[in-house]
Amino acid sequence: MGVFRNENAAALLVRDTKQQGKCSRVNPMNRSTLRCAAIALFLFPCLTHAAEKSDPKATMQQPAVAEALRFVQSNAEANIETQIHLCEIAAPEFHEEKRAAAVEELFKAAHLQNVHTDAAGNLIGDRPGNNPRPHIVIAAHLDTVFPEGTDVHVTRNGNVLKGPGIYDDCRGLAALVGVAQALDAGKVQTAGTITFVADTGEEGLGDLRGMKEFFRNKSNSDIDAFISIDGPEPITDAITGGVGSYRLRLTYSGPGGHSFNAFGIANPIHALGRAIAKIDEIQTPETPRTTFNVGRIGGGTSVNTISSSAFAEIDMRSEDSGPLEATKAAVERAAQTALDEENARWHDHGKLTMKIDLLGYRPTGSTPADSTLIDTVRGVNQAMGLSALTTSRQSTDSNFPMSLGIPSITLGAGGTGKDAHTVNETIDITDAWKGVQRLLLVVSIFPN
User: Fold this and answer.
1) Distance between CA 317 and CA 201 in Å, rounded?
2) Does some domain include residue 389?
3) pLDDT > 70: percent of the chain
């Protein structure tokens, strides 16, 4: 939109005042005043927007928020104990219910309302604000990559905690609870409702099932912002873009037989080898970053048996949907060519069949750099004396709401983690409470 010329603005003002019967002619001596008034009216929405924009430093000094921030720091050790407690409750994929039950008690103790579990096992609780909107959702995932039977005992050496999932995402769950507790302790009145979610199915083959269920039939007309708490993100950073992914299982099947007596029939394992070799030759762009990986293979019963089946699980990722779809198509072509070659090699004796199953799909997405949500996080960083905000793209719970057009972001929970997705996962919890304070300020300010 361009700036009106003064004469046009004055003419519009004169026209409007004539229509209202307030004047019928303009004194030349007052034209300058009218021009300024017209320009001021034109700029008024911009000035109003600037005036309404929250000042994080001022918000930090409000008595209720200041008390909540003090609570976070004084409650830091108790929050770490919560992190350890939750992490020592196993939560393998598709079996998060015991950990969810422990979080439910903490949600209720923080006086969240309407605490309940949905069809996907997400634990949900609301904290009403002065109005229903803006409606913010803040979430951390319950599940881990570790199978049932994994020893989830947590050890502590000073400020270093060690245990499976101790920061991905036990730290996120502790921070989620910590924000709810601090808002309650400070009796903070937010502008709108905050919904807290301990969600399922973020890792591995979970396929974001928790987020897909939560956002079923929801859009940006229902939710104004989404915040995921996850992973090793430094509290100066934010994930603002979602790396999309496909996960496929490729299976070749045939009659199988004895390695000597049945020799001359097509072999599913040989077909799989052909396919993997062809997949390895696929070319992907460096920008947007696009990757593929054959992560698991299996098949066969013994060294002297022609297998009746063989499978591979394949992961493909990209920052953009176009290259992601192209890579998936290339993998499928490689699989089909391998099948055709193996059958041709043995003249269709023991002819093989192929099946490709979709194990998971995560959509791509992003939140604009000039969005209110990112601007809020940027202001909080500055107010807390942290480094300037840096952004990146990853695959997190935020992918799904991003794909719906809901402003979404993933933030760290404090502390410094390493060796994620291994039994040697650790986190240095020095000043981890600052991550909770940052999250607290973001939900308290946006877009208050």
Assistant:
1) 18
2) yes
3) 88
